[in-house]
Amino acid sequence: MKKRYLFLLVMISLQWTSRKEIADPSSYLSDLKTELTKEWPKNRAINLVFHGHSVPAGYFKTPIVNTLEAYPYQVMKQLKARYPYAVINVINTSIGGESSKGGENRFETEVLVHRPDVIFIDYALNDRGMGLEEARKAWVSMINKAAQKKIKVILLTPSPDQRTDLLDAESALEKHRKQIIDMAKEHNLGLVDSYAFFQKKIQSGEIISSYMSQVNHPNEKGHQLIADGIMTYFK
User: Fold this and answer.
1) Which of 174, 45, 170 is nearest to 115 (CA)?
2) Which of 20, 145, 168, 225 is a good FRET partner for 190, with 20 to 30 A between their CA atoms?
3) Gene3D superfamilies from the xrefs (predicted)?
4) Phi/psi at 219 (nearest 5 deg)?
């Protein structure tokens, strides 16, 4: 009896430990990648929902919205090149100026209603105004609602704000980045660490403004960094 009890404790411990990791990009969307290779009439429509603020919405230099150059549609282009038989719907539910609280409020009526296969969440730039604790509540609420429907979720850390030193470990953006990474680990979700992509550019000696169209909006080249990060889950 004692051995059985110890065995159960070990198994529970191993399961808990395994959950505390970011989902493996090579396997997290394995079933979906199989669906993407199917040909008509055996295939079905794949719905990808991008939920967030102005960056995924496609704002470049306000009020210009360059939809087709923003990362959701750059992802669409790359997916179609990789999976030519697939029927893919990119559904953008992002709203400029919105925080994750607003995104949470309309999550069921404007996101889940599309029956997504994958949901991408990108709100950190605007969440600075509400603080870490309230942002966590909103993100976790959306994560849990998606989990109840068995929907895959990929979290995105923020893209840059040029008023913030991207290498400052104590900046609000860096703290939100770390919180998003923690949530991805806690819930075993996908993660695209956009912030790290731009940090590496600075560390290699590049000027961050060359990736930006406005103080807090990436240009096409900046969006490409994010799109390429997302594509690691589809390869």
Assistant:
1) 45
2) 168
3) SGNH hydrolase (3.40.50.1110)
4) -90, -170
| Distance between CA atoms of residues 210 and 53, nearest Å | 22
CATH of the domain at 219: 3.40.50.1110
* pTM of the entire predicted model: 0.91
The tokens for 208 are 């961050």
Structure tokens at 212: 């930006």
Per-residue pLDDT of the chain (235 residues; tens, 9 = 90+): 555 544 444 444 444 445 589 999 999 999 999 999 999 999 999 999 999 999 999 999 999 999 999 999 999 999 999 999 999 999 999 999 999 999 999 999 999 999 999 999 999 999 999 999 999 999 999 999 999 999 999 999 999 999 999 999 999 999 999 999 999 999 999 999 999 999 999 999 999 999 999 999 999 999 999 999 999 999 9
> CA distances (Å), 165 to each of 124, 132, 156, 159, in order?
16, 19, 19, 12
Phi, psi of 189 (to 5 degrees): -105, 170
Q: Is residue 3 part of a domain?
A: no
For tokens 């589809």, what's the residue?
234
Neighbouring residues of 107: CB distance < 8 A, sequence distance ≥ 6 = 51, 141, 142, 145
Specify the 3-state DSSP secondary structure of 95. coil
Nearest in space to 233 (alpha carbons), one of 29, 21, 85 = 29
* Residue 187: inside a domain: yes
Domain membership flag for residue 203: yes
Q: How many domains are contained in the chain?
A: 1
User: From start to end of 34-150, where are the E strands?
Assistant: 45-52, 87-92, 118-122
Q: Which of 92, 154, 103, 153 is nearest to 127 (CA)?
A: 103
